[in-house]
Design the sequence.
């Protein structure tokens, strides 16, 4: 599969820089508050020292100095409080923005690439990792103040007395080494911790998906062990993080008070020598405590390292290229003539579809049949661009699918699946869920066509019943999925095994609803049942990812190999009787509509009597 070109959008910028662009005003305000608080804290010792000197000198009470100290104290407290409030709200908003952007990127990308990660890992990245990454700008703004304070304090000490400042500088190399080691070790431990977390989330999602199978096989205990198996590693990484943190706090807890004592001792000696005054001693002691506050940076650095690891894990998602399209202009108004030209799909070198040439005239129906694993779903995915082929092209009414604007394409192509995901709060939302909101009347009409109206009427609140509260059987879920596709039919309707759980009476009625769209909507029906093949205008018969033949069902039926696609173990045709008419129909109109051309011989000549020239 050729990789899409790198995404040239601003989304490719990494880490905190990209985040900082999301809420620039809030972050600027946060930066101003943090810096303002730090400047007030730095100015206070100087003002205090000056005021003490004037008090000690015995002159009039220095009211202006006292007032300045009060104002600076208030400013520091106010700025810190504003920074705390802004920081919390900004982190929450950044988390929301980051989650929205990441989810939007995943949804806009080609599904096979977007969903390459295991579901649990993807969920962990979308939830926990986004929160970790989003805290980076706020932590960074706090860290700026954390650096500004010790540096400013050092400058303050230098202005008071060079020897006192030199005493502080003595311990600086030790402090820097301590912080560097801490940052590196925390980053490693944090990344390992996040990986183990993702693995547990992935295994848990798998187990939840397969809950019934696990219950039926009575393998709950084994599954429990499998899900929690990375817990030991998680605990190790967690302990490692706290050990690194504990060591850093312990070392700084020893180093910083000693450093402060040293600074105060030198300042005391300088006072005794008459080099500085009492006020300057007061200011020096305050600056010394601000300078050793650099130890508080360890927390911020640890948090930044975690954010960085989280941001890195989001990068592959945020740089996912949107589904490319060439924008070749408007799509002609037509009934959905579909053409697959020499289409091939491969996965890790293995061909899943190869050399498929297929034409489906607008407004007709095509049944796609073949044994399990023959590539029917791959063909269905390629036909509506859920998947880009690795070779060849797909055209709808003459326009290559990759030339159609994605939103337009999704309006023109509707899908229904065997196991539909029911999205939306209520049943009505679920049916209306699509490229545009279907009206209540359209929702009800679609539900009638999908034969869902009967069981919906029995739900406690009818169409307003929350989907989560609606007890639905497999067939009822399928009918809701069909109703959703019917509510947004477009010009191409693709049903991938979407009738498989319906009883034959319901299937018959749904197929009549499908037939009613003849002439205005092209229908592709992936099916195992003979009745579906018999009813379609034409049949595409797949074998090992290749198109074995196309043609009308009654003509293909002459080929024993074709008949064997529907046969059961005892050699009889599945529900089909011996004439291939699909006589499992309970309705009266059970004869197939045959208006396609004659089938033709395949190039490999494997079909004895019938083949398709569209096969290579
Ligand atoms: N995501 C994937 N990665 C790798 N191989 C895949 C993937 N999806 C499908 N395949 C393989 O592609 C082949 C065709 O799969 P496909 O789902 O199209 O078969 P099918 O004819 O629809 O089968 P069925 O009737 O059982 O649904 C299978 O061999 C399958 O293993």
Sequence:
């Amino acid at each position: 599969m050729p990789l899409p070109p790198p995404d040239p959008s601003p989304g490719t910028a990494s880490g905190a820089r990209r985040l900082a662009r999301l809420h620039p005003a809030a972050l600027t305000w946060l930066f101003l508050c943090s810096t303002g608080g730090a400047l007030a804290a730095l100015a206070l010792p100087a003002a205090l020292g000056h005021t003490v000197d004037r008090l000690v000198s015995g002159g009039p009470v220095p009211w202006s100095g006292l007032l300045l100290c009060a104002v600076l104290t208030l400013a520091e407290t106010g700025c810190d409080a504003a920074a705390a409030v802004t920081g919390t709200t900004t982190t929450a908003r950044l988390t929301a923005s980051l989650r929205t952007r990441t989810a939007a990127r995943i949804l806009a990308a080609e599904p096979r690439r977007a969903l390459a990660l295991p579901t649990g890992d993807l969920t962990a990245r979308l939830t926990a990792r986004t929160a970790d990454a989003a805290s980076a700008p706020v932590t960074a703004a706090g860290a700026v103040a954390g650096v500004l304070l010790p540096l400013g304090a050092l400058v303050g000490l230098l202005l008071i007395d060079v020897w006192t400042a030199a005493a502080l500088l003595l311990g600086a190399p030790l402090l820097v080494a301590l912080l560097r080691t801490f940052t590196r070790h925390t980053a490693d431990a944090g990344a390992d911790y996040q990986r183990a977390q993702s693995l547990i989330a992935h295994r848990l999602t798998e187990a939840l998906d397969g809950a019934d199978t696990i219950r039926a096989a009575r393998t709950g205990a084994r599954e429990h062990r499998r899900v929690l198996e990375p817990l030991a590693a998680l605990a190790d990484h967690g302990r490692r993080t706290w050990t690194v943190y504990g060591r850093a706090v312990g070392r700084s807890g020893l180093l910083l008070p000693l450093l402060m004592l040293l600074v105060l001792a030198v300042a005391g000696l300088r006072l005794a020598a008459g080099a500085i005054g009492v006020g300057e001693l007061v200011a020096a002691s305050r600056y010394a405590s601000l300078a050793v506050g650099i130890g508080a940076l360890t927390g911020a650095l640890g948090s930044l390292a975690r954010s960085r690891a989280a941001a890195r894990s989001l990068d592959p998602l945020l740089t996912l290229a949107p589904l490319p399209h060439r924008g070749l202009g408007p799509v002609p108004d037509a009934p959905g003539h579909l053409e697959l030209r020499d289409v091939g799909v491969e996965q890790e070198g293995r061909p899943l579809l190869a050399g498929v040439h297929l034409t489906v005239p607008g407004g007709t129906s095509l049944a796609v049949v073949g044994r399990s694993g023959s590539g029917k779903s791959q063909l269905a995915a390629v036909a509506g661009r859920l998947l880009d082929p690795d070779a060849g092209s797909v055209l709808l009414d003459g326009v290559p699918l990759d030339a159609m604007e994605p939103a337009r394409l999704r309006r023109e192509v509707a899908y229904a699946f065997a196991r539909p995901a029911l999205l939306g709060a209520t049943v009505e939302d679920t049916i209306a869920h699509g490229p545009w909101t279907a009206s209540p009347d359209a929702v009800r009409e679609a539900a009638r066509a999908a034969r869902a109206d009967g069981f919906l009427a029995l739900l406690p609140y009818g169409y307003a019943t929350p989907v989560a509260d609606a007890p639905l059987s497999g067939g009822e879920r399928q009918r809701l999925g069909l109703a959703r596709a019917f509510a947004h039919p477009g010009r191409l309707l693709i049903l991938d095994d979407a009738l498989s759980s319906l009883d034959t009476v319901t299937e018959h009625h749904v197929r009549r609803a499908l037939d009613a769209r003849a002439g205005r909507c092209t229908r592709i029906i992936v099916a195992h049942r003979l009745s579906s093949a018999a009813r379609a205008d034409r049949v595409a018969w797949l074998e090992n990812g290749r198109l074995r033949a196309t043609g009308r069902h009654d003509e293909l039926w002459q080929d024993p190999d074709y008949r064997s696609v529907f046969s059961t173990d005892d050699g009889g045709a599945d529900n089909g009787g011996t004439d291939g008419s699909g006589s499992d129909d309970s309705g009266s109109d059970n004869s197939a509509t045959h208006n396609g051309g004659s089938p033709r011989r395949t190039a490999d000549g494997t079909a004895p009597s019938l083949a398709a020239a569209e096969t290579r």
User: Anything to note?
Assistant: The CA atoms of residues 275 and 583 lie 110 Å apart. The mean pLDDT is 82. Residues 418-483 form one domain. The chain has three domains: 17-318, 363-375+491-616, 418-483.
